[in-house]
Amino acid sequence: MPKPDFSMPVAELAQMLARQAEAVCRYYLPAGRREGRYWLVGDVHNTPGRSLFVRLTGGGTGKGAAGRWQDAAEGTHGDLLDLIRECRGLTEFRDVAEEARRFLGLAGGDHAAARERRRHPVGHMASSLGACAIPGSQADDGSDPAPDAAQAQRAARRLFGMAQPLSGTLAETYLHRRGITRAALTGIDTLRFHPRCYHRSTPEAQPEPWPALLAAVTDLDGAITGIQRTWLDPDGFDPLDPIRLGKAPLATPRRALGLLLGHAVRFGTTARLEGGPVNGLLVAGEGIETVLSLRCVLPAIPMAAALSAGHLAALLLPAGLRRLYIARDADAAGDRAMVSLTERAIAAGVEAITLSPRLGDFNDDLRELGVAELRANLRVQLAPEDAVRFMTSG
Q1: Sheet holding 33-35, edge to edge
Q2: Dist CA 26 CA 33 (whole Å)
């Protein structure tokens, strides 16, 4: 075992981790897997998925070096010290260094490294929402990652602007076959269709065009900060395939571009009634199809799809909000998001009410139980005055 070195600088500690990048990933991110030169996983908290990718090979200390990672959904990036920090929820670099030493089989503190990190905080603990890059692109290694974030947001806006309205497209057909009614899609301008939206299966693969449903992610002022792409099967919806449900036969038929954290895909009116935004109500959930399913029976209440459990927990709450309905998915991640968002809402003086599906999520309820059962389940969960005022009949 190497002897402890109390004067080891940060750069040397990071390089030692980088030389064992795959072992670091397998230990801290076991829900992921290796694909080519990258380790792919959902996020730094080891959520299954492919939004975060870690370089496993590459020399030097720049953006192409082993151990550098980027999260395309969160807009975060860093090295393996940052990854350990975020994964373990550590706040002090001394604790990060000790955890890294423990992994490497070293011992003791790292006072010199802590001093160096305090002098140069940006190069490593880069949890800024800046470098939001898509797989295959490079994040800025300098002290200001904002240009990458701005570039990603511009790309998202440009792609959304190139897409066509939803009506009469394969994307509209896809949503209808997921049980979403035509009335639920009325007046929505945050969903569009792109007939040839490029998909890259791995960071090194050649992009291939597929039809896609595009959803605009906006901030509280309505500005587009990103998009979600759902690639679709050009042959249509196969009712015998309960997994893809009309999505393209790709390993990752959904991907985000731009800045998502705190923002959402928004549906519904913003007109003011009785002095507040639709009486100060909002329904917030994870997926687009889940939230649109609720809109089938609650079309008058504004809704927000945060696109993941992690983003739902971090959703920014609008001014004037009085009551927040949190449409949870019936899984552990959904429970955690519900608890976190409930705590934040209560702290902001907002009443929080949880809406729970009978099956996995509300789109499962809509497709498998029908709109009447969905309506009946929601009616008993809403505040009585909201059920009377906003629930559609049927």
Answers
A1: 33-35, 38-41, 52-55, 69-71, 76-78
A2: 8
Residue 351 has a pLDDT of 96
pLDDT per residue as tens digits for the range 352-394: 999 999 999 999 999 999 999 999 999 999 999 999 988 866 5
Sign of dihedral through CA atoms 146, 148, 151, 156?
Answer: negative
The mean per-residue pLDDT over the stretch 48-57 comes to 86
Which of 262, 164, 156 is closest to 216 using CA atoms? 156
228-244 pLDDT per residue, tens? 999 999 887 666 666 66
Burial of 243 (0-12, 13-18, 19+ CB in 10 A): exposed
Measured in residues, the chain has a length of 394
Give exposure, 149-180, as e/b (b: 16+ Cβ within 10 Å). bebbbebbbebbeebeebeebbbbebbeebbb
Q: Residue 50: pLDDT band by 50, 70, 90 thresholds?
A: confident
| Run of H or E including 76 | strand 76-78
> What span, in angstroms and rounded, lies between the C-alpha atoms of 198 and 207?
6
Tell whether pTM > 0.70: no
Spatial contact of 337 and 286, defined as CB atoms under 8 Å apart: yes
Residue 100 near residue 93 (C-beta atoms within 8 A): no
Would strands 272-273 and 265-267 be described as parallel, antiparallel, or unpaired? unpaired
Core vs surface per residue 54-87: b (16+ CB within 10 A) or e: bbbebeebebebbbbbbbbbbbbbbbbbbbbbbb
- Look up residue 393 and give its DSSP letter: P
Query: Given the DSSP bridges, would you call strands 76-78 and 164-165 parallel, antiparallel or unpaired?
Result: unpaired
